């Protein structure tokens, strides 16, 4: 039997394979399994439908955020068009389902692939542009896609939006929060697993090399343009996949939600979660989604309570303010995000009482 | 032909406003290489300061204008001190996202205080300022804008060319290490350039408010339109910003007039992508003087 | 020793908290002298200058130990803005002009430490030392030749009325005749303005000709010091820095004894 690994109190790695392990200890692996089992078995029965809805939203956001983290956190290419790619995925799924009557398990990955193609088209400027010029180019991409989603009437039905047929697995209907809960978490686990392992391959290492120093990477023989495009493709695949899930879950879509502020929200998730950390993207998705929901809840209470309602103040903008404040505070205080905070907390427990 | 001239005049006036709005943005980028996503909100803050002084406090026009400018100047210093100074030397994405966060904060505050409705200033411009040559009809606000804009352009041109502080600011933009070695107060220069940029932005916001009425959403949308303008003109060229603004303005009005009104908002961004692919440093951006 | 201007007591400098570059450097500089700092690449000469001028900070370096006394005040780890206002100006290695500013504007940046004071007479003084700059005063610095640029950056530093001028490799990449010209001017600045100068040079022969005193650095330590005359005649210096062995021939590493002597230094 294999030796059971506990946390070492220092860095005792001797081989590269040890550096590459996903779980540093068997405890980590155990906790991972326990967490997954708990998520699958107990949560759906404990949570109210509203809670389940929020959890589903977190799951979808987490998939998209993982995709964006591959692009920003690992490859170092800042994109302001992720929200639009999410929208492309949603529309692709809707159009495939209504025009071609494909089942969801075909439309969702296919929508991901279509978005990946479009993402790569908008990634072409990365061949010549770096840093903030590329950021501005992706900003333009965001506006152009947004425009097409609204004004390409023959394809997207414009402002009327598209209603999707109910999601069915063979004859069993997946409609409703619970069915989608399983679907979304299966997808998140799968996509997370792919992302974590992708970063351990030569592709992942090439991405990181490009992020750290693209000229040096090129000098080492990495064809940087091809890898940047690949990174754009993978990242948009995640966005499109998440968007397609979202469209199937919502049942009907319009172009409205896929605007610049959605893109900003995804970047906020990636930064608050932790750049270059797959698990961080999930923390970020949890944080931003919960923040949004709780702020909505709180402003709702404030608006209906006596004093504020009497003064006629509109408290809704408070959400925007606090959202901005959260981003600013994280950047100023802990720029490496929740993943780093979590690591610090964990290691301070682990090293107690002899931390140094 | 009349229609064409109308579009031409309209495009140039709108474009001049874009250029004016972009000036502050270019100033910040030039001195500290910060891509300011909160620029639209800076425009809005200037407009609302002016609104507060002129409508709430009922101050005379000129005093309100000057007070609003002072307010913007101080706000610019504050933003630099509190938010941007700790980020000197951090990666690009943090700086970008910080300004995005600031934009959300400012927008939230403005909406809390003034709400999302359209406000207007009382009319204070004499009708005689308007120009009326047959088909060419320029309303008084536009000619006033032209005068104010030119005045500011001249003022800042002189400031950067001849005053010591202006030269120090340019030296920091040019070679920060060398400026530091000569004792230039680099942090003060950053603060000053934010202050001046906020002042110029506030002034542009007031002008936009006079013309279109004051509304946060509209003004922050113009803040995003600054990007195609400055990319076209070159991110570090103030004169280029004005020309870029006029080109974008003309493009917008002509596509709106001859093609379709819905296209006009997306055309600048299509142009932006093309420019970035063909001529990344803009039409008037500095070419790197490279000596080996 | 009342005319002591600057004193470094046993300073250590660490970059990014891990890379130790200076390991206990002590040196003292008298007023109105030219002190030359010699040594091979990576010996820590530039770092020593940056420790004095406060320019370590933007490069994530820090004086972790020891004191820098300038006119009796401790200066270590101060902001460059403060240090320059005390009269210490460093001329950076590799000539860093403001490329998009004209020559005259470049010179005016040198007045940053005395902002608001008249500068006309200083401009004239700089043009008097460097007549070549007068001809090009309206041209962009980016288009000047290397020699003109070196004059420009030295003139720019003079505009600040420095009491202590830190020159980092002024001869880098210049033609021999221009080097002679530059060193002649350094000497004149020292004599006419009474400016104290610390001169970091690879060109040890030239440096020792105009300097009064010299220090030799190796691996972040000072390994030898003395007046310039003594250093010039020292056989080890002659061999390792002036490039000739005691007999006057070009040295060769085949010479085992020389190798051992060299090792003793490191």
Write the layout of secondary structure elements.
The complex is a heterotrimer of chains A (356), B (292) and C (266).
Chain A: H1 16-20, H2 26-41, H3 43-46, H4 49-74, H5 82-99, H6 104-123, H7 131-151, H8 153-156, E1 162-163, E2 168-169, E3 172-173, H9 177-198, H10 202-212, H11 214-219, H12 224-250, E4 252-253, H13 260-273, H14 278-304, H15 306-311, H16 317-333, H17 337-351
Antiparallel strand pairs in A: 1-4, 2-3
Chain B: H1 2-32, H2 39-56, H3 61-84, H4 92-114, E1 131-133, E2 136-138, H5 140-162, H6 164-174, H7 176-181, H8 186-212, H9 216-233, H10 238-259, H11 267-278
Antiparallel strand pairs in B: 1-2
Helix pairs in contact in B: 1-5, 1-8, 1-9, 1-10, 2-3, 2-4, 2-8, 2-9, 3-8, 5-6, 5-8, 6-8, 9-10, 9-11
Chain C: E1 4-15, E2 19-30, E3 34-39, H1 45-53, E4 61-70, E5 73-74, H2 80-85, E6 88-91, H3 103-109, H4 120-129, H5 131-135, H6 146-158, E7 164-168, H7 176-193, E8 196-200, H8 204-210, E9 213-218, E10 221-227, H9 228-233, H10 235-240, H11 256-265
Parallel strand pairs in C: 3-8, 3-9, 6-7, 7-8
Antiparallel strand pairs in C: 1-2, 1-4, 4-5, 9-10
Helix pairs in contact in C: 3-6
In short:
The complex is a heterotrimer of chains A (356), B (292) and C (266). Chain B is an all-alpha fold and 292 residues long.
Describe what this molecule looks like in 3D.
The complex is a heterotrimer of chains A (356), B (292) and C (266). Helix content of chain A is 73%, strand content 2%. Chain A has 356 residues and is mainly alpha-helical. Chain A has a single domain, classed as ABC transporter involved in vitamin B12 uptake, BtuC. Chain A is globular, with a radius of gyration of 21 Å. The mean pLDDT of chain A is 84. Chain B has 292 residues and is mainly alpha-helical. Chain B has one domain (14-224). Chain B is built from 11 helices and 2 strands. Chain B has helices at residues 2-32, 39-56, 61-84, 92-114, 140-162, 164-174, 176-181, 186-212, 216-233, 238-259, 267-278, and strands at residues 131-133, 136-138. In chain B, strands 1-2 form a two-stranded antiparallel ribbon. In chain B, α1 (2-32) runs antiparallel to α10 (238-259). The longest helix of chain B is centred in the N-terminal third of the chain and has 31 residues, at 2-32. Chain B is globular and about 60 Å long. The mean pLDDT of chain B is 83. Chain C is of the alpha/beta class and 266 residues long. Chain C has a domain at 4-95 and 166-233: P-loop containing nucleotide triphosphate hydrolases (Rossmann fold, 3-Layer(aba) Sandwich), CATH 3.40.50.300. Chain C has helices spanning 45-53, 80-85, 103-109, 120-129, 131-135, 146-158, 176-193, 204-210, 228-233, 235-240, 256-265; strands at 4-15, 19-30, 34-39, 61-70, 73-74, 88-91, 164-168, 196-200, 213-218, 221-227. Chain C has a 6-stranded mixed beta sheet, with helices on both faces. In chain C, α7 links the parallel β7 (164-168) and β8. Chain C is globular, with a radius of gyration of 19 Å. Chain A binds chain B through residues 72, 78, 124-125, 128-129, 131-133, 135-137, 139-141, 143-144, 147, 151, 260, 264, 267-268, 271, 275, 313-328, 331-332, 335, and chain B through 35, 83, 86-87, 90, 92-94, 96-98, 100-112, 115, 224, 227-228, 231, 262, 265-266, 269-270, 272-273, 276-277, 280.
């Amino acid at each position: 039997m294999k030796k059971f690994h506990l946390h070492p109190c220092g860095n005792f790695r001797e081989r590269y394979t040890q550096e590459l392990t996903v779980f540093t200890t068997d405890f980590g692996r155990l906790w991972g399994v326990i967490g997954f089992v708990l998520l699958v078995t107990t949560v759906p029965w404990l949570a109210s439908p509203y809670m389940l809805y929020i959890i589903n939203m977190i799951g979808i956001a987490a998939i998209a955020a993982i995709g964006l983290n591959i692009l920003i956190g690992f490859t170092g290419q800042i994109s302001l068009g992720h929200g639009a790619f999410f929208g492309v995925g949603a529309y692709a799924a809707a159009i495939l389902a209504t025009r071609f009557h494909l089942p969801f398990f075909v439309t969702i990955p296919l929508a991901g692939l279509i978005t990946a193609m479009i993402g790569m088209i908008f990634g072409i400027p990365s061949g010549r542009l770096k840093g903030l010029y590329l950021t501005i180019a992706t900003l333009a991409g965001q506006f152009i896609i947004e425009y097409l989603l609204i004004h390409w009437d023959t394809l997207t039905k414009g402002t009327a939006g598209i209603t999707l047929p109910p999601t069915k697995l063979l004859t069993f209907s997946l409609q409703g929060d619970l069915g989608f809960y399983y679907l979304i978490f299966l997808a998140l686990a799968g996509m997370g697993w792919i992302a974590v392992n992708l970063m351990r391959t030569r592709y992942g290492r090439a991405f990181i090399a490009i992020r750290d120093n693209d000229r040096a990477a090129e000098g080492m023989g990495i064809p940087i343009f091809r890898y940047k495009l690949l990174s754009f493709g993978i990242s948009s695949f995640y966005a499109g996949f998440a968007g397609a899930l979202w469209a199937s879950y919502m049942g009907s879509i319009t172009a409205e939600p896929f605007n610049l502020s959605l893109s900003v929200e995804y970047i906020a998730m990636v930064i608050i979660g932790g750049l270059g950390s797959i698990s961080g993207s999930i923390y970020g998705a949890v944080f931003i989604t919960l923040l949004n929901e709780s702020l909505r809840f709180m402003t709702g209470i404030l608006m209906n309570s006596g004093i504020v309602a009497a003064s006629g103040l509109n408290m809704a903008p408070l959400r925007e303010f606090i959202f901005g404040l959260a981003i600013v505070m994280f950047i100023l205080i802990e720029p490496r995000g929740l993943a780093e905070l979590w690591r610090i907390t964990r290691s301070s427990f682990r090293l107690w009482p002899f931390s140094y | 032909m009349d229609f064409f001239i109308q579009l031409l005049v309209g495009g140039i006036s709108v474009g001049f406003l874009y250029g004016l709005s972009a000036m502050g943005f270019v100033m910040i980028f030039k001195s500290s290489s910060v891509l300011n996503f909160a620029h639209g909100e800076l425009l809005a803050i200037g407009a609302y300061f002016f609104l507060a002084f002129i409508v709430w406090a009922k101050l005379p026009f000129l005093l309100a204008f000057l007070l609003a400018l002072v307010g913007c100047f101080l706000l610019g210093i504050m933003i630099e001190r509190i938010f941007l100074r700790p980020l000197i030397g951090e990666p690009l994405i943090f700086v970008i996202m910080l300004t995005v966060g600031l934009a959300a904060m400012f927008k939230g505050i403005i909406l809390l205080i003034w709400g999302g409705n359209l406000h207007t200033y009382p009319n204070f411009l004499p009708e005689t300022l308007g120009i009326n040559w047959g088909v060419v009809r320029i309303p008084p606000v536009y000619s006033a804008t032209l005068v104010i804009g030119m005045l500011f352009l001249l003022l800042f041109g002189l400031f950067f060319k001849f005053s010591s502080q202006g030269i120090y600011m340019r030296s920091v933009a040019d070679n920060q290490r060398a400026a530091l070695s000569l004792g230039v107060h680099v942090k003060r220069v950053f603060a000053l350039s934010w202050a001046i940029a906020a002042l110029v932005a506030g002034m542009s916001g007031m002008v936009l408010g006079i013309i279109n009425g004051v509304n946060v959403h509209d003004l922050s949308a113009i803040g995003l339109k600054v990007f195609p303008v400055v990319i076209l003109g070159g991110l570090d060229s103030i004169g280029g910003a004005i020309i870029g603004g006029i080109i974008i303005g003309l493009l917008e009005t002509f596509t709106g007039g001859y093609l379709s009104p819905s296209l006009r908002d997306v055309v600048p961004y299509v142009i932006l992508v093309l420019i970035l692919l063909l001529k990344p440093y803009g039409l008037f951006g500095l070419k790197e003087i490279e000596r080996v | 020793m009342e005319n002591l201007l600057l004193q470094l007591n046993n300073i250590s400098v660490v970059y990014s908290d891990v890379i130790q570059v200076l390991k206990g450097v002590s040196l003292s500089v008298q007023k109105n002298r030219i002190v030359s700092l010699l040594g091979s690449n990576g010996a820590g000469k530039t770092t020593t200058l940056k420790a004095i001028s406060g320019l370590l900070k933007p490069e994530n370096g820090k004086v972790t130990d020891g004191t820098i006394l300038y006119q009796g005040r401790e200066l270590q780890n101060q902001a460059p803005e403060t240090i320059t206002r005390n009269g210490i100006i460093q001329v950076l290695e590799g000539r860093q002009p403001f490329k998009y500013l004209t020559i005259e504007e470049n010179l005016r940046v040198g007045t940053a430490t005395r902002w608001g004071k008249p500068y006309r007479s200083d401009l004239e003084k700089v043009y008097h030392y460097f007549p070549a700059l007068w001809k090009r005063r309206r041209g962009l610095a980016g288009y000047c030749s290397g020699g003109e640029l070196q004059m420009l950056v030295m003139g720019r530093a003079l505009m600040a009325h420095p009491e202590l001028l830190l020159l980092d490799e002024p001869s880098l990449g210049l033609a021999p005749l221009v080097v002679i010209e530059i060193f002649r001017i350094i000497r004149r600045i020292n004599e006419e303005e009474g400016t104290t100068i610390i001169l970091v040079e690879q060109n040890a022969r030239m440096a020792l000709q105009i300097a009064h005193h010299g220090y030799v650095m190796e691996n972040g330590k000072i390994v030898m010091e003395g007046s310039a005359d003594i250093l010039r005649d020292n056989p080890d210096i002659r061999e390792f820095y002036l490039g000739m062995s005691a007999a006057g021939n070009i040295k060769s590493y085949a010479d085992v004894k020389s190798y051992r002597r060299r090792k003793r230094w490191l």
